[in-house]
Amino acid sequence: MSTADENNLFSSKARGIFRKGLIFFSIKSIIEEKIYAGCGIDDMAQKNKKTEEFISLTAEALKVVSYADYFTQTPLFTSLQIKNAGSDAVTDLTLAVSNENGLLTACVKPIAEVPFESSVEVDVGNILSPLYFVGLEEVRDERIYIELKKDKQTIASETLTVTALPFDYWQGASGNAELLASFVRPKLADCARLQTEIGAQLKKWGVTVEGGGYEGSDKNTVRQTAAALYACIRRYAFQREESDISSPVEAGGGVKLLSERRATPLEMALFVGACLENLGLHPVLILGEKEITCGVWLYDNCFMDTVSDDLQRLGKYIADGINNLSCFDVNDLFSDKNVAYSTSEAHFVQKLDAGNYYDKYVDIRRCRIAHLLPLPLRARNLKGYEILSEEDMSPDAAPKMLTSVKKLSLDGKQTKDKQWERRLLDLSLKNTLLNFSPEKLVLHVLSADPDSTLKALTEKGEMTLARATQPASEIAKRKVFFGAASETKNMRELIALEISGGIMRTFSEEVVLQETVNRLIKRSKEADEESGTKILYLALGFLRWYSREDGKENYAPLVLQPVVLKKGKGGVGFAIAPTDEDFSINSTLLEFLKQEFNIDIRGLDGALQGLKISEILAMVRMEIVNMKDWEVFDDVYVAAFSFARYQMWQDLRRNMDEFSKNELISSLLNNRCEIKDTKDVEFKEDECPVTQTLMPLWADSSQWEAVALSQTGKTFVLHGPPGTGKSQTITNMIANALNDGKRVLFVAEKQAALSVVKKRLDALGLGDFCLELHSNKTNKAEVLQKLNTTLSLAGTQESVSLSEKAASITQLKTDLSEPLSALHKKRRLGVSVYEALLICLRNKNAPDIMNIESTFYDSLTKEKIETYENMMVQAAAAAKECGGVYNSPFANVNLTEYSRDKRDAIYCSSEVVIAEIKHLKNYVALFLELYRQRISTLTRKKLDTLAAVAKLLDGGTFNKYFKENEDEFYAFFNANKRLDACLEYYFKHFKKLVDIGKDYKELSAWLDKGGVDYSRDKTASSVVKKLSKVSLAPLREEDAVKHLENISEIYEAMDRIRSNTKLSQNFTSAFGRVDFFDGRKNFLSDLYTLHDLCATLFMDYNPDSFNSMCVRAANDYTKPVLKGLLRSVDSFRAAEESFLSITNADRRQIPEEDVLEFYTAKAGALIDNIDMLANWCMYRATAQKLDEAGLTFMTDALENGSVTGENIVDSFEKNIYKNFLQTNIPLDPVLSRFSAALQEEETESLRLALDEFAKLSRESIRAKLISRLPTPSTEGSLSLELVNFQRLYKSNLRGTGLRKLFEEIPELSKVVAPCLLMSPITVSQYLQPENGMFDMVIFDEASQMPTSEAIGSLARAKCAVVVGDPKQLPPTAFFNTNYVDEENLENEDMESVLDDCLALGIPQRHLTWHYRSKHESLIAFSNIMYYGNKLCTFPSPDAPDSKVKFIRVEDGVYDRGFTKRNKPEGDALVAEVVRRLQDPAAKKSSIGIVTFSNVQKDYIERKLTAAIAEKRLEDVAYDREEPIFVKNLENVQGDERDVILFSVCYGPDRSGRISLNFGPLNQAGGWRRLNVAVSRAREEMVIFSSMTGAMIDLSKTGSKGVAGLKAFLEFAEKGRTTLAIPSGNLVAKKPGIGKYIAEELSSYGYDCRYDVGVSDFKIDVAVTDPRNKHKFILAVMCDGPNTFSVKDRNVLQIQTLKRNNWNVVRVYSINYYNNPKREIKKIKDLLDKLTGADKRGGTGLNRSKKPYKAAALEQRFENATFITSGDNDSEIISRLKAIVTAEEPISYDFLVRRCLTSLGVVKYGAKVDSRMQALVALCGFRYEKILGTAYYRKTDKNIGFDRYRVETGETLRKSETDFTPYEIIALIRAALEDKVALYMDEIMVIVCNLLRVSKTTDKFAVYVNDCVTLGEEKGLFVRSVSDRISLA
Asked: How high is the pLDDT of residue 379?
């Protein structure tokens, strides 16, 4: 049967969708869709919108794509974001990207979650298909389809059009210029072919090139090589073909240029570039909109950027005299031109100067470093195209020649330690090892030759230095500094003679000689004392070399022999002597020559053994022979050689053997982890004893874990992103190490980093034991004094016990953690109480109808629930497909398997049932019409009765009744009915029927006359007597007449029966006696049966009418109807049976009422919906399983409509987990007795206990450190070293340096200064090279420290903690040079010691809590873009608004190519700074200015300085704790300010064009610079920019820094939703209880958001201030699941929120479960108070207010003598006591003033004051000194900070201290109870008003502020960063 036939067969009515197969559903996706979709807050209008209304897709892709994009792995999308504008997260999405023509490979990416009000950046990578491009022959536009789906439904889509280019096409000048490098193919056969011709041309010109490339070639040689290439190409007479490079153009056609001899300028430029690269040279392509040409580097170098538009710099590089580059015009290579190479160079210069030919250049060498490699080639094969390498295209290409190794080049790989030494070398011209000055503090030695000089010195061991002879003096006067040998030829014999005699003569006069030697000795001594380094050398041989940049002449020593200078024998003259060390080569010079000139003679450094000085000099001469004017001289000098990092370099060079014993150093040396114990140890704060790790400074759990790990002695890396408390953590590490008796070395390159930690240590009281030695110019006297001061502390320690407070904290933590643990503990059903509560809340609106039996609940498991829910969802889904279960057309169709045969059988049986019902109804209608009856509803019983009646009528049985006359039968039938009724009544009262014969007529006549007194009538009385005899009970008089009437009717009826019809004969005996009892009854039984049936069958049944019709039908004319009716009933029954059998129906469910209508509707519905039978069968199969599992109550509820398919799982879960909660909470010992009040009390107790414990920890550590100090009674080595120290102290280290000091007191220094804070240089300078000298070294800012600088410090410690952030700036030295030793890449260091340690795989820890930014938006960019959203940040009350602002400078112009400034932008920024400095509120915030270029920095700095001076704002700008700074991206790391202002500088130039050259951002690591810059602000960031993010086209650059700038500008301009979270960082998170609290609060009209925050830390509910929609007014914190420690969760987070201006309230899940209305009301009451909705106000102030009761004192008028005489002391004391009793507590000044005023003494002097002090002391008052003032009291009842006093009438209290701190704090507490939080200015108003302070002075304001600070210390208040005070 065809589909059409099926449709025709089953299309009697509209049908549902017919599905031929079973449908399977994902239980997870369906359940989660049901649970989490559309469950927002009803009051919020947006929550009612569909998901697709909130979800949007934005995509930006490359406008043009080619095979080059695929080959270079360029992502197709520059931005692909999913934005969720709703307030609910959307989960389980699928993103599909496709193209119908094969442009893309298959891409379907799951998206776990898109958080609310956020964007997600989806990285699909490079999905371009290479096969598509290989076969593409024309430019084609392709459509890219992006679809975002949820549950297979598309909720957002986007279509983009891109232009696809054929295989060898380039995008054109408007595209990505970088890709041109991929079309430069140096291995083409034509390039190799030209190489031979070029060699011949060079030979013709007399130019010899050895080895090719830059090696051994100077600039002229390289230029001549380029000219030779030019000449060789010219010979081929190329024909020029035109092409437009401004649009996509073919760029790979140059494969066979030499044979075809035709090319476009583009192809020619690329071919020239390929040939140059083939020659080992570095080409540069220069291009504009219409022009392109080529150039070449004349020495081994490249630009910093792959593409640059700095044509000004290019012009400088080709300028005559500099000649770094040679560029020519490729148009001159075509046959229509005939010019020489130099002329072509001139043509290029002319075009460059014109300014409209070129606008950018591409450095091919820099592109290769960036992995932009040559494209492969495309070639045809039998099947089409294939991709081949260049070698595959050139079958006759010769193998590459082996490169010969120069004798003096570095043979083999350099070891890592040599690389470190190289990195430490100073390659600047400030270094005398490169730029030797022969006129400053040196001795020029007369030497016949260096060999003899060194030999004599070595053999003799000491030689006398002698002044110059007259000839030598003459030479010196002529300033012959080098080449003196030629001047002293005639003196050789004399020199040799003197040398043999031990005299080393110099060119210096006696005075100069003495002065020089003395100064050299002094410098040498200082270096030896301070750093242990030797700096005096005998320099043998010098190299003259010339700078590339300016051609300046320089000299550098070649061989260095360490020497010492000293007094001669007998103290006369001076002597020189060699040290024990052998001579060495100048390593600095060797490295410099390699980097700058590619002259590699570094092999000399390890090959000096057995060589003479003259041989070494000869070797160097040989290597520089091709360098113009370079020369080696054999002069000899005595001089001091050193440089900035000399100590570190020498430290490594001398001590590497010792250092390599350190496990970490060994690991770094060998590029593998050789640390024995690398097993990571996980510590959890809540699981460790409180005393194990002390926190003298507050620390969060991530900081605590780092500190705890540092105690184990393990080496690890500590990641410290900006603002995460690195210095605080380091301080705690040091404190714990000192507490454990360890010695710590803290190293940082910057003084500021050391100072921050030192200040913290000082504040802890540990600074006495920490010695800061950052500078190599440290004052020795200060160090000595510092150590001596520390020693003087010996014996002053006090005993401090931590155990009691630690036990208290432990118990409090346990008490606080137990409820949370119990709440989140997984229980029997695999869920926690909290999860069960969420399920119940989620399903609170689901039907609550099921009574689950306890046995079923007890049998449940997690797995069973999941199985059952899966089955329910499948059942519901199948039911949905068939139109639902309740009132389903398939109800009671109990088939579980579907087949076509079953479907056909049901269909046919349904049709038969309907047909038979129609047939039956017709006969029923005929029957009723014939017999004149009606039937209301034909129930099954009535149908059976009807069939029985018809059968009786059809059987002929009733002919014996109905053959009679109708009227007679009527009388007969009714007489029998009457007789039956009367007999029934009669035999209820009498035993038998009395015979009254014919008396009944007389009796009837008497009765008819109304007879009443039967005794007067004979007949009646006779009958009564008879009745009395047979009566069952005594006959009552009043019943006699009734019985007489009854018996009269009996006999009358009998008479009628006999007289009407002959039917009575049927029950008359042969003797003529009528049997009115059994005989009659038997005869009439059939008739009565018929009528009984009819009475139950017909409506308003009338037997007479029925009898009448039966009498008429006695002639059998109704027989056909009766028979037909019986047949139709039988047919219906057969059809029904068949129908029920086929459908396997439960007969008990068939309704009895209106059976025909039921079957008509049922069968019709099945026919109409037969196409859904398959789905129904699937439902029934699942339902059957549910029934078998005991879930009949669920299927019944579904089928009876109590639940629906949409809420069946919800209803099941609600009831299951409601039972779960009712069972588990009461049985849990913790949850059952949970008290929120106790929890809050314990939280406060923990906060106070932690504060106290931190204080005790500081005291304990200090006490331990003091206890270790030696005392005079100390014995052993410490005692001896103490004596040594005292000696050195008294001598003030005369003649001794700090290094010597530490050598003298190694053990004493461990206890006096167990912590040293040093720089890498001072470590090498002052410390012995002892492995394991320190127990631990801590590096700060390790991301900025090269490994080479860290080695000396690392080697001196047993373990290291390397602290830094790999996502911030690496060492700046790495940005100062491009040099990388390609021959030693595997030994090259990574960017920093941090990176190197990470590469070793040592353990890591991360600081995760960010504290710097006072608004979350300030760190959001860095957190999402660079930290994977892993930083925990605190949301801000004004979170809806961003604190990152964008100011577009519309008239801004970037002066590209000239000044490179943006003056309008700088002017706008300066104006804003001035405005802020003049604004009273804004000037409180410190300001920092960051520019993206140094030129813009200089401009703003000058402009700002002038503006500040003009406005006289110097004080507010600079004279403050944090003065204004102006810095660029390179040097802003480590700084922070309240407000950071940015000047982007870059933007549209005068022509409106935006270059993609953004300075340092384009460079490698540029994104790190941006990350540093944008994470400096605490309060606000303002970006001044002339361009928007949309103006930056990322399709033209692959720079991560530029992409970051675009994202940052968009973020600043449009807000957080533009920040796309990388999809790989997303983890779907389910909402917690906060969601449901927010829903409830919304019903009160409050606008709420739940899970507020962009990091892992969320505020469960944030309530918007109804008075200001841009601010939140309240944070509701719940007890959802998290991994935070007890301290973090209960104290740190809450306190931090309060400091950030939040009002905070807690809601506990158990309380919410027990009474949600109460908890909501509690929050609402607080909200009403915060918003003023309660209208009460002042309750707290009124409650705490008390009247001021002044003492009643008799006023007297005395003088000062009354006080000082001593005669009246008793009276004065009495007055003092009366005042204190009434007015306690009271300050001393106020007490004295009150007393003296009452005595009339107003003015008094020192004598009176002294006397009053004595008298107050005699009173014996209690007192407490607070804020520097003593307050006296008699009792302790008024010092609880709980009341304040208000005066009435004239005020007594005038001075600020008259108001006690107790009262000020109490008043503020009361005010905060009413207002929750107040700013200091608001507090001042309240205090002054209530205390009636008429004039507020600065002193009073300071006093109130001090009281608030005291309240903070007492744990009563929390002060936010914006000076907002709230209750703790």
From this structure: 62
